[in-house]
Amino acid sequence: MSLRSLVWQLPRRVMRSFSDRRISLWVALVLLLLALLATLVWLAGRYEASQVQAELERGAADAVSDIRSGLSRNNQALLAVPAWSVSEKNWQIQAQSLLSQNREWLRMEWRDAQGLLLAHENSPLRVPAFDNATRQNALVEIQQACMRAQRLNDAAYSRSYFLPQPNGLGMEVMELCLPILRANTLLGFAVVSYSLQGLLASQLGDTYGRRNQVSFTEPDGTRLAIYGEPKRANRLFHAQQLLDLPGNTLVLRIDGRRAIPDLFPNVLTALVTAMSIALVSVLLLLVKDSRRRLKAERDLADALAFRKAMEDSLVTGLRARDLQGRITYVNPAFCQMVGLTPAELLGCSAPMPYWPPEMAGEYQQRQAVRLAGNAPPREGFESVFMRKDGSRFSVLIIEAPLINVQGQQTGWMSAFLDMSEQRKVEELSRASQERLQATARLATVGEMASLLSHELNQPLAAISSYAAGSLNLLNDASQLQREPLLGNLQMALQRIAEQAGRAGKVINSVHDFVRRRDQNRQAIAPSALISDIMPLVLLQARKLQVRVETLFEERLPQVLCDRTMVEQVLLNLARNGMQAMDHPTCARRVLTLQVRRAASNVTHGWIEFSVIDAGIGIAPEVAKQLFTPFFTTKDEGMGLGLSLCRTVVEQHGGRLEFSPHTPRGTVFRFTLPTALNA
Ligand code: ADP
């Protein structure tokens, strides 16, 4: 996989791993919530069951106390029988009445103090359960109960026992023995046979028997008597309570069925369920919302990746700075341009590592102006940057304020275009143009020379032939007459004078042609002359990495000059100066163009232009021939520049001179008349 596609896929991978983690988090949350809700519902159900259980326990306790009070009421009723110790007949009537009131009683007996049966009566509500013969003598259970009753001086009960019935069934029976006392004398015992099932039916039937099954059990759980059938429902509850009677201990058990698994058994569960539904709905909404967010995030990541790809593929360098001038962002094109990595650039402030040291001061001033809030020109401006290897290159900078979404300015955004290629092309075309001009100038000079030679040839040829003729005449003087000789000589000399006059006129007409340019002179501010040539000078300065400075004296008067010619002079001198600094030994490459009032007496009222360089200087042997036409030390030089300059300056009445400059270099200075002076 290529690095590029890896970089492309990286955000997607990161996103996918994020979304995987998010999905597992969501699953965990849903599971937790479900577990919580299940626990809540289960707890609510358990609470409900415990409520039912507690209610049943309370019921069992109440039932035991009901039975106990019922039994003691029965004892009171027995004691209240006035017929004890009265006649047997009378007793039987009263016993009949009591037996018909208490359904749980099977039989009532009156026994004397020794336990012998005096009278008995069976319940009129049932088939007699007992065989009279067996009951004549007291049963073991009755004996034990009565002994205990005598000892306690109160009612006592026997242990229950099973009484088989003729129809094959049977019932559990318990005997009550109640001592009958009159004036502290034991008259005998009232013995009542209780049917345990009857006891349950009469004492608990109405209250507990309808919804539950009530029973007496032995401690091991064996049922002795049962009453009632529990309602049909899903869940069975049971509660037990001890019925501790003198002489017997029974376990009362209540079994009840309750409808627990109803969906909304009570308000609490309903509330919990409703809350659970609400929670699940909220969860669903959250999941939906999170999905939407995920989609939005994915879209955003795509948009970001697209923007990054665009920024990375741009050939225009981009750079952002904050309001303090620190770099906050650079794109790969900018890094490539200056040959520095983003880590080397981010956070940098002035002086920037890509500023050429000789320009640092100027750039710092420019940045200060920018940071003070002054917007740069919309069309951009040109500057020179330095690569990491020290080489310089031109850039076009377009700067704009960086405005955030709140509409506040947070810094400056700049776009950079590498102009070095364009500059190279411009330089090439300029050089070829210069060559063309030079050739054209040479052609003109050549033409003028041929014209001059042609024009001067005729009078000079005539002069030489007349002179030769005159000499021949003088040689032949002995043979010829004196008179015609003088006449011919006079005519020849006249012709010579005429032809010399004509040659003079040709020369004068050339001079006139040159002098005709006088008519082009105009009054112009010296600063205007300099600013006119500045673009051309800067173009070459950029190429040769030279800084150009200008110095103007204040309130300079205008000069009277042929603008084009003087500009040509300034350009020539500036070019020579910059070329003299294009040397490896030249570290400080500064060209100064200075204009001031001329100081010497001779040139008082004149303006002096100086072109100062820090180049290699002029050796004495070069200085001797400096103004000689066609003298040059350069490969592509023509050697006409300085002589032309001197001619132009002298035509204006001024002087062109040069002197060495300290610590190194040369100063060329020339003077021009002011408009006032003229
Ligand atoms: P060209 O520039 O075509 O050589 P010029 O007449 O302008 O012709 O210059 C003649 C010579 O004078 C140059 O070749 C150079 O050697 C020398 N020269 C001119 N100006 C300077 C200068 N500022 N510093 C050093 N040498 C100079």
Write a brief caption for the model:
This protein has 678 residues and is an alpha+beta fold.
Structure write-up:
The chain is α+β, with helices and mostly antiparallel strands and 678 residues long. The protein has four domains: 67-258, Beta-Lactamase, CATH 3.30.450.20; 315-417, PAS domain (Beta-Lactamase), CATH 3.30.450.20; 419-517, Helix Hairpins, CATH 1.10.287; 520-678, Heat Shock Protein 90. The chain is 49% helix and 23% strand. The chain has helices at residues 3-79, 88-101, 132-136, 140-152, 196-204, 267-313, 332-338, 342-345, 360-371, 420-475, 482-515, 526-543, 563-581, 620-624, 641-651, and strands spanning 105-111, 117-122, 156-157, 161-164, 170-182, 185-195, 212-217, 223-227, 235-245, 248-258, 317-322, 327-330, 381-386, 392-403, 409-418, 522-524, 547-552, 559-561, 590-597, 606-612, 656-660, 666-673. Strands 1, 2, 3, 4, 5 and 6 form a six-stranded antiparallel beta sheet that branches. It has a five-stranded antiparallel beta sheet with strand order 12-11-15-14-13. The protein is built from 15 helices and 22 strands. The protein starts with a helix and ends in a 5-residue tail after the last strand. The site of adenosine-5'-diphosphate has 20 residues, from helix 13 and helix 15.
